[in-house]
Amino acid sequence: MKNVFLVFGILFVFSCTYNSEEELGIIIPGDITIEEQVIGFQATVRPIIDENCAIKDCHAAGATDQPDFSVDLVVEAYSSSIKEEVLSGRMPREGTLTFQEKDSLISWVNQGAILD
Predict the structure, then answer these.
(1) Which residues contact 46 (CB under 8 A, 6 or more apart)?
(2) Cβ atoms 29, 102 nearer than 8 A
(3) Which of 29, 83, 85, 92 is within CB 3.0–4.6 Å of 52 for a Cys-Cys bond?
(4) Would you place residue 25 in the very low, low, confident or very high pLDDT band (cuts 50, 70, 90)?
(5) Per residue in 50-100, pLDDT tens?
(6) Secondary structure string (H, E, C) spanning 37-54
(7) Taking a C-beta distance cutoff of 8 angstroms, is the pair 24, 62 a contact?
(8) Domains of the chain, residue spans
(9) How far apart are CA 65 and CA 97, in angstroms?
(10) Residues 92, 53: contact at Cβ < 8 Å?
(11) Model-level pTM?
């Protein structure tokens, strides 16, 4: 009987292997989904920013102590911070971004945050 437990124990240990996120099919925004596509600022990023960030009491003109994301050059200047905040889930404070929106923003930053 002891041998049976020993065999099952050994089989159990060898069956438990580490799988990478890629092997498990876990997709991280900006990592492998659309990174190879060029993400245009005006067509893709600007609408996400306008809808979720450059709004009253957030990152719009007149908001206190916050950068004005209605200005393209400001979005470009804060692109690394935008990526961090989106990845952490801290932003946007009101509502949430879809996986596609997160992926687009992060991929745009990873591609150099180029304004077009």
Answers:
(1) 72, 75
(2) yes
(3) 92
(4) low
(5) 999 988 888 888 766 889 999 999 999 999 999 999 999 999 988 889 999
(6) CCCCHHHHHHHHHHHHCC
(7) no
(8) 26-110
(9) 23
(10) yes
(11) 0.70
